Amino acid sequence: MARRIGNALCMAAALSLAACGGGDSSAPPPTGGGPLPTPTPPPAGRLFADPVMASLSVADVQLVLAQAVGEAQARGLASTIAVTDRVGNVLAVFEMNGAPKTTFVSRKTIGGEAAVGQEIGLQGREIPSTTVAIAKAITGAYLSSGGNAFSTRTASQIVQEHFPPAPTTKGLESGPLFGVQFSQLPCSDLNARFTGGAGSNALIGPKRSPIGLAADPGGFPLYKNGVVVGGIGIAGDRDYGADNNILDIDLDDEEAIALAGIQGFAPPIEITADRIPVDGTTLRFSDMTIGDLSPIQTSFGAVNGPAGMLIGVTGYNAAVIQPGAAYGTEQSGIRRSTTAEFSNADAYVLTDGAGNSRFPIRAGTDAASVGQPLTADEVRAILEEAFAVLSRSRAQIRRPVDSRMQASVSLVDTHGQVLGLVRSPDGPIFGTDVSLQKARTAALFSNPVASQQLLATPAAAPYVSRVRTFLNDPDALTGNFAFADRSGGNLSRPYFPDGQLNTPPGPLSVQQSSQFSPFAVGLQTDLIAGDIVNHLRFVLGMNADPAPGCTNIPASPSGNKRIANGIQIFPGSVPIYRGNQLIGGIGVSGDGIDQDDMVSFLGLHNAGIRLGSLGNAPKDIRADRIEVAVGNRTVRLRYVSCPFAPFLDTAEQNVCEGL
């Protein structure tokens, strides 16, 4: 486990966090990234510039590995090191001699002692160290962009039960991306799988992660000339956990090894997480500094063989180094759309590597359930209006200040079928899968068959009665109310209302607040834990890989699962209605949860004005009409929360008020 040094200046109460940089270690950011390049002006007629196409070469990967292995040798921590490109292709995995083959998922502690035998979710699982290193590398790559560089330490800060996580911050709301760790799942039907071949689609992304996104320090993004090109992840200490105290500085060997690996490939200092505040708290990038590192080793030949060897990981890579795909190319699986695919010249789409959009705009497939499904023209209009709102909006977690928002937008029908998916040019990759999770979650929980679907799923069935008891509504989850992801997220927190101590947990959360950990959050975890475990057994050669399509929820009449990549429980989606009839869901993810809420809600509203045939849920059935008794008071659920003055081209305020 990491040793800790108390930060005496920042051990005061939570209100002192702002003065301390939100728990920032006050450590200088890693060198090697240089200043942020001057932004390229967008081409005429466009609002966004395309990211520069850059990628990791074999020589680049060799240098990253050599630097990391050298630091691991100096620290005496034999480790497994993974390097990925921006879209999640595993370019290399290096296993040092004596590196532990397995790692334990951290257990929740009660009274300072590990709660052995009381684990829920993924806690206490012994998993392959290779999968830990890969997940950390993917996390660094997927959470980052040309406007923000986030690490697995950043991820740890934003997914826990209180934000920022610390002993003195109990009573504050949960992290803004609470639940994002259960995205990019190995069973996802969106994220691509390693084919093992060399065909045209071998490198298409986004690729899946073996255990979702990581919150354990030791994963960073990799940059070339200010362009994010991949990530590095380290597994060596046999503990896969999270940092639950942001007020001190960790001396973390895995993070130091990863920091050595990114020298010469570090992000520009202006965009590292410790330059980005959220709700008045500065995020965290690294507790380790350049001064903590040993002399840098740069010769791959000096370590390849004497120190360890390249290995292949079943389902992820071969035992060689391969160059990365350049994001934005057909080969990468994400490229700029054609005008035939989407009208907005700034939009990007997912592609199959052979020139075809993976998710072309199409009509709903659920005529058997809704009578009048979404038409292709309606789908196109909703996505166009949402993208227009996105393009006008001020980014919340990007640098420089007053950058345009960058995100992904997904739209589904009531069966969970993808009817369209578009991205802005530099949206972080994680938002692609997450936007689809959000759209599907809103469509499922607002669906008349929601309770039927959950009751037919053993891991989910107990949650139905808990929701009905909690809401004092025996008909809950039968379509009588419309649930946005913010609404379902309210019910998924270990405290209700969010963060407030000595209150009951939400009915979709763990049954006791003390049981919460980032690896056991309640329904979200229980729906997919079995799929993750079976996938890890596949990596070990013990069984076949689970088919695409997370959870054991029954198939829809269209033959697919309504939540085929898991659910999501932080804001950014709304259900779509034709009058009082649910007809789909829209989800947005990538650049601040209030912005995500606004793009989904306001984009759908504007499409409704344009079309006159659909829109947001009627006000009287939105989940914010639900009142929950908490002690001697009542608390309303939330539906959406829009930023106060979000646009770059107008000073308009309260843009969602009254809609």
Automatic annotation (TrEMBL):
It comes from the Bacteria. Coiled coil: none annotated. Pfam families: HbpS-like. InterPro entries: GlcG_carb_metab_protein (IPR052517), PduO/GlcC-like (IPR005624), PduO/GlcC-like_sf (IPR038084). PROSITE patterns: PROKAR_LIPOPROTEIN (PS51257). Residues 1-21 form the signal peptide. Residues 22-43 are annotated as: Disordered. The keyword Signal applies. SUPFAM superfamilies: GlcG-like. Residues 27-43 have a biased composition (Pro residues). Keywords: Signal. This is Heme-binding protein. It comes from Pontixanthobacter gangjinensis. The lineage of its organism: Bacteria, Pseudomonadati, Pseudomonadota, Alphaproteobacteria, Sphingomonadales.
